[in-house]
Design brief:
It contains five helices and six strands, in the order ααβαββαβββα. Helix 3 runs antiparallel to helix 4. 33% of the residues lie in helices and 22% in strands. The protein has a six-stranded antiparallel beta sheet. A hairpin with a 4-residue loop joins strand 5 and strand 6. It is globular, with a radius of gyration of 17 Å. The mean pLDDT is 85. It has one domain. By secondary structure, it is α+β, with helices and mostly antiparallel strands.
């Protein structure tokens, strides 16, 4: 009890435990997103983690592949492993745009498999891609260690620049649908994220 009081007095807080079930709120949030801003799912999503090597990870990757390959409605390639220019790894899933619920299930399965096999500390985020009729892209990013979401809107053809006004608009629109990350300093850019 004394330690908790000391934590409060010093402004320390316990980290929020990841709650992967929050990913299941994305399909209803997508309805709000389309109505409020005209963005629809692309069918692309990915899980980002700090790169790991070795047999244990290779086995986990095979398990994830087998689990997702068993889904006969997949309609596309299996989950693929990619590395970005910043040294992070991405397990990418592609579905048709009308299969958002199945895509969310894929992302949940990947995160869960990584967590169960001891790779939870390496998990960083998951992202689901959206776009509007004008070709603007948007990712809804789930921060694994925070248990929160934030929008990421890269500006096409403008290098590493983002549409901050759009991100704030989406934050306001989805406030009732998703647990939005309130600390804007944690809205990390995910340049080069596959599927965005």
């Amino acid at each position: 009890m004394g330690l908790r009081l000391l934590d409060i007095l010093l402004g320390r807080t316990k980290p929020v435990a990841p709650d992967l079930d929050r990913l299941f709120a994305l399909p209803s949030a997508a309805i709000t997103l389309e109505a409020a801003a005209g963005f629809t799912p692309t069918g692309n999503g990915a899980v980002c983690f700090a790169t790991v090597e070795g047999g244990a990870f290779a086995q986990t990757h095979r398990e994830v592949q087998a689990l997702l390959d068993a889904d006969s409605d997949r309609g596309g390639p299996p989950v693929e492993l990619r590395r970005d220019d910043y040294g992070y790894s991405w397990l990418v899933s592609r579905r048709t745009p009308d299969q958002l619920s199945a895509l969310v299930n894929d992302l949940h399965a990947v995160n869960s498999a990584m967590e169960v096999n001891g790779f939870g500390p390496q998990l960083l985020c998951s992202v689901v891609g959206f776009e509007d009729t004008g070709g603007r892209r948007l990712g809804l990013v789930y921060l694994y260690k925070r248990g929160t979401f934030y929008p990421f809107a890269p500006l096409a053809g403008r290098g590493e620049r983002r549409d901050n006004a759009l991100e704030l608009q989406i934050k306001a629109a989805l406030a009732d649908d998703l647990r939005i990350e309130q600390d804007l300093g944690r809205w990390f850019p995910i340049w080069g994220a596959p599927g965005l």
